[in-house]
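Q: what does this look like with glucose-6-phosphate bound?
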Amino acid sequence: MQLTDYPEWQALVDHTQVATDNLVTLFENDSNRAQDMNLQAAGLFVDYSKNRITAETLTLLQDLARARNIEAATTAMFAGEKINTTENRAVLHTALRYQGSEPIVVDEQDVLPEVRDVLRRMGEFSDNIRSGSWTGYTGKPIKNIINIGIGGSDLGPVMAYEALKHYSDRSISVKFVSNIDGTHFTEAVRELDAAETLFIVASKTFTTDETMTNASSARAWLLAALRDESAVAKHFVAVSTNNEKVSEFGIDTANMFGFWDWVGGRYSLCSAIGLSVMVAIGRDNFQAMLEGFYAMDEHFRTAPIEENLPVTLALISLWNLNFLGAQSEAILPYDQYLNRFAAYFQQGNMESNGKSVTKAGEPVSYQTGPVIWGEPGTNGQHAFYQLLHQGTLLVPCDFIGFAKPLNELGQHHSKLTANLLAQTKALAFGKTADTVRSEGVAEDLVAHKTFVGNHPSNTIIAKQLTPQTLGALTALYEHKIFVQGVIWDINSFDQWGVELGKVLATDIFKELTNPGTTQQDQSTNLLLSKLRELK
Ligand code: G6Q
């Protein structure tokens, strides 16, 4: 049965027709609304009262979640069942941060001993780099780490490195090279001494063209400076599941950190893919981050649907997307350190839930994953918030803020927080034409200065941005994506949609480097000839 044929879905359709109340009215009619519409877990407090929902909306959404067996699906994921059906793989990123003592079995084998062994080796490696006991080919300690990876092997480490920079060792610079554009690599190494630089080549498959191309250029750059093949072993380590390819590249597998096919790229931050982050912040802080993830995992796994934070945020988001017509969601962290958080979940969400067939391969008849975007506050306020307040699109927003700043500086933090709260308030409650008029605004400007309000948002607050908080926050969004995927009956853990472009690029590359050897379409031919002409 298609999701839209479920009576629980129909009940929500009917409810949409009656639930026309505006946020102003919803708050006026219920003085306990804010008190009733919040949840806390793993150090995060979430106010979801500024959504166009009532208690009944939530109940109907929870009924839908139950009808889609969300609890059984969650149990299956945590138990290592092969829920990634198109690739026949378990989905066990939760095992990477599991702090308990029960075994987690995949293909009749407990995965935890290996998980913990890799973490221990990562810890030793990080200690050695940070203490200077790992030296480069010329005997100098390593001062620069460059992570070469893309997609899931880049965005997570970048996000977490930026988020936890406050906790990092500033005597080591950490950079990330992902783009196949040679500019990315060239600019990253521009002022670096090869003798002090170590490359972490992070690639699950060790076949990704961007990463292999950048890694080859890194090798050539290093050898141009150090002029001895044996230097590679002191300046390259690999994070991968592919021993053979790592050896082929010339990296000693003793310097390889493994992970497993049950770790999806965009869910791999807690695996060895996080090695650059561990080097930057040290093993204890990395462990604290894992504990934060685990705290949210445990909440998600055990809390009843009504009190479950990832489930609640997933359901409210689903309401906005499937019933109120939203097509995107903005993630707006009011913390400069979270400047890559929205970009991280742009991949996390869009690659997971940007699907249009069900698990059985049937076309869906409802909207699935939204466009995810966002920038840290307050920058966005001077850029795109105009559209949020007065545009024609409905864009639900998540605001994220902290009670205590990591960098105390005059009144900056109070001003930052005031802006966060002011934006959620302005979006929800707006400003009526009458109020504008009462301020003496000329009649021809009244419409321009009116804010209709009624824009939904969640506000997520924590005490301070710590490794634990980041872990909990990240797991919250991961599980939100999972819940929506289950309800939409799609496979959130494959990404076939990225394949076609890769194949076509290989063919076009041939044409670019060897004209006349392939058949292209008219438009591509014209663009190729224009590019040749302009070269
Ligand atoms: C993420 C995707 C994708 C992947 C990259 C890099 O879930 O699978 O973003 O992480 O394509 O792949 P490799 O790690 O294999 O280089």
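The radius of gyration is 25 Å. The longest strand covers residues 197-202.
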